[in-house]
Amino acid sequence: MTELEHKQDRAPVPKDWTYAPAPESTDIVSIRGRYGLFINNEWIAPSESYTTLAPRDEEPLAEIGQANEQDVASAVGAARGAFENGWSAVPGSERAKYLFRIARILQERSREFAVLESLNGGKPIKESRDVDLPLAAAHFFYYAGWADKLEYAFPNRTPKPVGVAGQIIPWNFPLLMLAWKIAPALACGNTVVLKPAETTPLTALLFCDVVRQAELPPGVINIVTGDGRTGAALVDNPGVDKIAFTGSTEVGKAIQRRLAGTGKKLTLELGGKAANIVFDDSALDQAVEGIVNGIYFNQGHVCCAGSRLFAQESIAEPLIEKLKRRLETLRVGDPLDKNTDVGAINSRMQLEKIEELVQAGKDEGAEIYQPPCVLPEKGYWFAPTVFTNVAQSYRIAQEEIFGPVLSVLTFRTPEEAVEKANNTPYGLSAGVWTEKGSRILWMVQRMRAGVVWANTFNRFDPTSPFGGYKESGFGREGGRHGLEPYLTFDE
Ligand code: NDP
Question: What CA–CA distance (Å, rounded) separates 97 from 140?
Fold first, then answer.
């Protein structure tokens, strides 16, 4: 006892126990100075390139190829060649082995991928480590299981691969969206040309190493980097049989217009403005966690983010109080710090869009709350924000902000909640918080949303189909439903 006290006297006791940085080392990642396009399992030098940045400090990370029409055409040619010269005839049980291999390599290299994802995209390492990577691997595992069971998935129909799939993905979940796209496509016997988002190409490029490590035949997976022009060239290429797109509603509509009449298959996973509805009988503290996860997860760069909170009038005040208190504990900062809850905004462009909409919210008369937090000087940052006194007609209640900004509205009855929740051009997801199972079922039947979470939010599982209604797009990804867009049937 005496000794302990003695030691205690001499031990350096921190003055403030609330925070000590826990930075994840970047040593595990080796970023090349320059990347080519990945076609036929080879790196092809592009004619043009651009620089990809780290959103946390705007430091350049690498030079990335800007694929032009000819580059896209040669990637599509490679995919066509691989499809016709063997891949489509590989038995499902063999294709499954490749998918299992990819899944296992992703698990083995998950720390490397997680660090790179946070570095290039700005999301907190605890999210890329605990959400993006495990889910990406799980998608490959899950679809590996379907590869030799397609006839059972669609009994009395003869499923056949579509051919070459052109896949265009956004910057909010770069590797996870790649997995959502590539895993079902390969399981069904297709070959792919995938374009990652301009701002977040690095994990897709690291994935090319995995493709080689897994010894996939050349041409089965091709990755072409570049901006929207590369995406447009992929959409327009006549050798592509199917386009799978995740991104903004605006670009989704443009793609749909361009594909009309071409016979190409199309799935669109677009924007959202999800209602997260909290009834007065719900467990409020639990609901607060769900609200925080719903809108501040991944800086709110989530298509299914719970960006509209509907609080039942009788509990609105205490709920908002609790929420504000919880917001004060969120740690905003370096994405590579394991303590960080809210990381960097993905790009300057996205930051400006958030700022513009937040200004619109203030101008229209909503009341803004932001917890005190010191934002880093360099990089792209936005404090977690809550708007109260929001009217349905305000832009912040109608438009997708795609940032850490919550709009709070109120309601009195379940009918009113449904009416308000559905008052949006979107229909991707929703949340309901209540103790009553019957009320959950009543709400779910009436809400026009592809996914409704009950007493939770932002839960994902490869076995569960995901997709939207209305301007949130069409087609489903995940689950057995996720196979269908990659198949044709003799009927
Ligand atoms: P985009 O829809 O522009 O980007 C999605 C993907 O499409 C990217 O790979 C993009 O390339 C590509 N693309 C862009 N233009 C074309 C085109 N004409 N033809 C084919 N492909 C194209 O989204 P942004 O990144 O510009 O973000 C804008 C807004 O969209 C966000 O503020 C957010 O509201 C919403 N969004 C929604 C997402 C969702 O999951 N629902 C995901 C991302 C954004 P590039 O990256 O080079 O532009």
Answer: 10
